[in-house]
Design brief:
353 residues, mainly alpha, ABC transporter involved in vitamin B12 uptake, BtuC, 13 helices, 75% helix
Amino acid sequence: MKQQATAAPPLAARLWSRARWKPLGIQIGLTMAPFLLFGLFLMLYDVNPIRLYGSMVASTFGDLYGFGEVLIKATPIILTGLAAALPARAGMINVGGEGQLAIGALFATWFAVFYLYSLPFWLGIPLMLLAGALGGASWAGITAFLKVKGNLNETISSLLLNYVAVFTVGFFVHGLLKDPESFNWPFSPEIAATLRLPIVNGTRLHVGIVIALALVAIVWYVLRHTRLGFRIRVLGSNHLAAERAGFKVSWMQFGVLLAAGALAGVAGMIEIAGIEGRLRPSTGVNYGYLGFLAAWMAWNSPIRLVLTAFILGMITVAGNSLEISSGLPSSSVHILMGLVLFFLLGIGRRFGR
């Protein structure tokens, strides 16, 4: 009996250790699985997956410039992901990040070209940031109004407004905002140098990533540690319970959608002030949908969103290496992106959100 009593604790410790490490091992396996499956796809086209993955890693993490490109791609994905994640926590689906980003870029460019060009950077950039947020919020306000007053499904209205936003930007860059020295190309005049975001020497990386991470921290704090965040989470969990608790549900939905649009609009401003320098019809194309994808992969968690946006940014940058190294079109990387999505969703489904 005494020997059994002394043998029990080591056995219990081993069982506890296995129980602790087993979920981690499964998560690692599920994370690696899409890359193994994509490797099989590459082998069908006589491409060495190990060599290709090596070149993809080298192109993204081999030097500061490549790493900076990943962060550049991740920045608007983070912000448009927040624009999808925040309404989702309130029980709504906002697919309008694409259009809200575009209108935010339009507002930021309009104010930069006509009103802010003579201001110093310490004043002009914050005002341009506010203009971008105003543009995105205004565009999301259409969805919010239709949701609250017309009881129209916000998923459909926000999605359809993306196409309207593209044509709206096209209208301005072909007309009122068209650069007279563009040789008939549809883009706006270049914004003043004082309105460009500072960059890291030797790269194109700008301080927009700092702005994005700051907004992630703010959204996370509001959702987790404030009364407003608690009410948003209650609304998302049970609409009827929120109404019976006396919450002003319509106003909350309206405000959350406006805040989401403002976040996407900031992404549009960052694209103009950080990368493009002028508005084009293609400014920020697909970032809204990638942000929605990143939010879905992160189960609408602001902190996890940073990781999923970084993964999507890395895969997007690595697509160029894929085309150069293997001869396959760069769009083939979307297969890998889809596999990563499904397996990350599997992890979340198995281990909880």
